[in-house]
Amino acid sequence: MSKKVPLYIDGEFVASKSEQWIPVTNPATQEVIAQVPVATQSEMDAAVESAREAFKTWKEVPVSERARVMMRYQALLKEHQEEIAETLAQETGKTFEDAKGDVWRGIEVVEHAANIPSLLMGETVENVARKIDSYSYTQPLGVCAGITPFNFPAMIPLWMFPLAIACGNTFILKPSEQDPLTPTRLAELFEEAGAPKGVLQVLHGNKEQVDFLLDHPDVRALSFVGSVPVAEYIYRRGTENGKRVQAFAGAKNHCVIMPDANKQQVINNMVGSSVGAAGQRCMAISVAVFVGAAKEWIPEIAEAIAKVRPGAWNDEGAAYGPVISPQAKERVEALITQGEKEGAKLLVDGRNCKVDGLPNGNWVGPTVFSNVTPDMEIYKTEIFGPVLCATEVDSLEDALELVNNNPYGNGTSIFTASGAAARKYQHEVEVGQVGINIPIPVPLPFFSFTGWKRSFFGDLHAYGKQGVRFYSETKTVTARWFESDLEDPAGPNMSINL
Ligand code: NAD
Predict the structure, then answer these.
(1) Which of 111, 121, 238, 383 yields a CA-CA distance of 20 to 30 A from 393?
(2) How far is the CA of 482 from the centre of ligand 1 (A)?
(3) Residue 446 resides in a domain
(4) pTM beyond 0.90, yes or no
(5) Cβ count near 1 (within 10 Å)
(6) Relative to the CA of 234, which ligand 1 atom is closest?
(7) Do both 319 and 355 map to the same domain?
(8) From the candidates 167, 282, 353, 389, which is the catalytic residue?
(9) Is the Cβ atom of 425 under 6 angstroms away from ligand 1?
């Protein structure tokens, strides 16, 4: 019998009464390692009710005490980083190094949340009129919710609940049903860090549970990370219901390679950023745009990518793990087949990949296409597999036109030795996160994660100052204090301008 993943409701890890359970499988073996429940209506109601009640007291807890919970949480996550990474690696297939990175990037957000007192500071102006002062406060919203994808089961939940809760809100997390064990461990450690009962709830399930959160009048704000169609749906339904919504979606990230770039650096960076994590990163480089003579490096890049191989999470020689499910493998392989049919040149073919001793894993080998054009499906679709599409243009202007015509705007990078080319690219590119000689420019948590276009639906981005604003309201006070009755001798004040 595989273990049953508990719900976390009202400060208790409870066994669900659901009759519907979803198997959680190890993607390297297909072994069922756990069963995750589809929460029942009364369990969902109980989670919101508890979060609503907990908000009444949590919002009154002094901000420095809230910060201290985050400090203890940060220390606990660091202490348990390897243990969490091991669980994470087994349910996602990620290599151990990559799994530790997933946890680490989340820990950095908790560190940021521990700075909450200064992040919540408002503004003040004295004497906005005679003897009148104005000042603003940042106050929490109430119950917030988060819906997370499979590809970063530690980092992405940690983008959300620590900051929301540090701001004084309570939070309901609905993690991906494909890897719920890591988020459950995050919740256990959060409780151990001293988070009071009800401040965090974890509800498992799928669309039905998400729809419940989207429609519940007590949920004030909703953060989502996942695929484009679901992000768009969640943004629309949540905002129609009057909620604040931030929805982070899919991507097609281009790396522009100028002929003056350092060739060896380009080769090394292209390998990790395209096929690392089996290409299942929203910031993976999936399109390499070679400008002018840089195209001559394509065979060497393909050769370097062909040398890496997938393998088990604890195989130190493996560059990356399996894709998340047999369906994901089938989808990626079908796209490779389609790319070949549409006329792209398949330089490295990752289909029918085998890994010794693990015949049932969802393996996709490293794959490289050249001669890719914008009309091809492999260019238009987020493949979310270890596949690099190489394309060629004549100039930096042509590269900018290509990238700017793409509907996504999550991340991009340029490799060059020219400051002028880099400056032009960073200024003119219509993408929210830009790397210069850095392939995957994910901002650290004191900035915000700022995807654009169809990679993001909303206004305020994740973490950083924008994350704090997303999870809070601003209250502006205008105040006058009379020193005596004689101060405003003119009688009733009729001159208020609205
Ligand atoms: P997904 O959209 O299938 O699932 C994400 C979450 O939404 C899960 O919790 C799932 O249970 C829920 N969900 C699925 N279908 C739903 C529906 N019809 N209605 C309501 N909820 C639904 O995404 P995934 O496959 O888990 O994750 C991969 C995707 O996430 C990729 O497209 C990737 O680019 C994207 N992603 C984006 C970012 C970013 O910051 N922009 C970061 C990580 C992942």
Answers:
(1) 383
(2) 56
(3) no
(4) yes
(5) 5
(6) 20
(7) yes
(8) 282
(9) no
Residue 348 sits in the same domain as residue 475? no
117 located within any domain: yes
The rounded Å distance from CA 119 to ligand 1 centre is 29
Tokens representing residue 252 in the block: 């097609």
Using a 6 Å cutoff on CB, does residue 235 contact ligand 1? no
The domain spanning residue 363 has which CATH number?
A: 3.40.309.10
- 339: CA distance to ligand 1 center in Å? 24
Query: Is the distance from CB of 204 to CB of 13 less than 8 angstroms?
Result: no
- DSSP alpha helices (H): ranges in 216-297? 228-240, 263-275
Domain count, the chain: 2
Q: Is any atom of ligand 1 closer than 6 Å to the C-beta of 325?
A: no
CA of 297 to the centre of ligand 1 (A): 35
Tokens of 75: 């220390």
Please count the other Cβ atoms lying within 10 Å of the Cβ belonging to residue 259.
15
Whether 224 and 299 map to the same domain: the answer is no
Please write the tens of the pLDDT for every residue from 28-47: 999 999 999 999 999 999 99
On whether residue 206 sits in a domain, the answer given is yes
Q: Determine whether the shortest distance from the Cβ of 212 to ligand 1 is under 6 A.
A: no
Q: Is the minimum distance from the CB of 151 to ligand 1 under 6 angstroms?
A: yes
Range of the domain at 313: 253-407+411-436
Q: Determine the 3-state secondary structure of 322 from DSSP.
A: coil
Asked if the structure places residue 491 within a domain, the reply is no
Indicate whether 223 and 294 sit together in one domain. no
The ipTM, to two decimals, is 0.98
Q: How far is CA 433 from CA 83, 304, 455, 470, in A?
A: 32, 26, 11, 19
Q: Do residues 323 and 206 both lie within one domain?
A: no
Per the annotation, the verdict on 282 as an active-site residue is yes
Domain CATH number, residue 465: 3.40.605.10
